[in-house]
Amino acid sequence: MPLNVYLSGEIHTDWREKIIEGAKGLDVTFASPVTDHAASDDCGVAILGAEPDKYWHDHKGAMVNAIRTRKGIAGADIVVVRFGEKYRQWNAAFDAGYAAALGKSLIILQQPEHDHALKEVDAAALAVAREPAQVVDILRYVLTGSLPG
Question: Structure pTM?
Answer without folding.
Answer: 0.95
